[in-house]
Amino acid sequence: MSKRAGLLAAAAVLLAAVVISLVIWRGGGSSSPKSLPVGVAEEFDFDQEALDSPEIEVAVITIRGTVLPGYTDWMCLLECREPDGCNADIQVTVDYRSSGERRVLQIAGRLQAEMGETMRIGRPQRPPTAVDGIDAVTVKVLRSYREGAPEPTEME
């Protein structure tokens, strides 16, 4: 029985070595960009003059991405500049560059804020992407509503 126990222990050690080797090997071939360490937040430079938001008055406070294993977590902070508040479903289109290539990311969300308040929308992007810079941000209103107003019933 001790011979069998010794074989089982050797098999367990071999299996553990294989698993550790696979984890290390896969980590070296991950799709995370080499320019950013995993889990590091990066604030992207953005010129407010490149903001196109004709339907709702907002200002971009920051656009940030955190590169994580398997995806980049995008976050956009907006400031409401509407005198009656910002109450709308919006789509933010971010035109950016990654490794010299032009790319587009769309982030949708609901804004509910009084004038001067900060709002956050975001989304994950797969695969993870390093960002060289942001060229333009467009905010489009998908649906606006009044705070406290009843929701319309959709017809089928």
User: For the CA atoms, what is the radius of gyration?
Assistant: 24 Å
The number of domains is: 2
Shape-level CATH architecture of the largest domain:
Sandwich
**What's the main sheet like?**
4 strands, antiparallel
What count of helical segments does DSSP give?
A: 1
Pick out the low-confidence regions.
25-34
The helical percent reads 10-25%
> Which structural category do the helix and sheet elements fall into?
alpha+beta
Strand order of the largest sheet: 1-3-4-7
CATH topology of the largest domain: Immunoglobulin-like
Strand segment count: 8
Strand content: over 45%
Structure description:
By secondary structure, the protein is α+β, with helices and mostly antiparallel strands. It folds into two domains: 30 residues; 105 residues, Sandwich (Immunoglobulin-like), CATH 2.60.40. Helix content is 17%, strand content 47%. It is built from one helix and eight strands. The strands form two sheets. Strands 1-3-4-7 form a four-stranded antiparallel β-sheet, with no helix packed on it. Strands 2-8-5-6 form a four-stranded mixed β-sheet, with no helix packed on it. β3 and β4 form a beta hairpin. The longest helix is centred in the first third of the chain and has 27 residues. The radius of gyration is 24 Å and the shape is elongated. The termini are far apart.
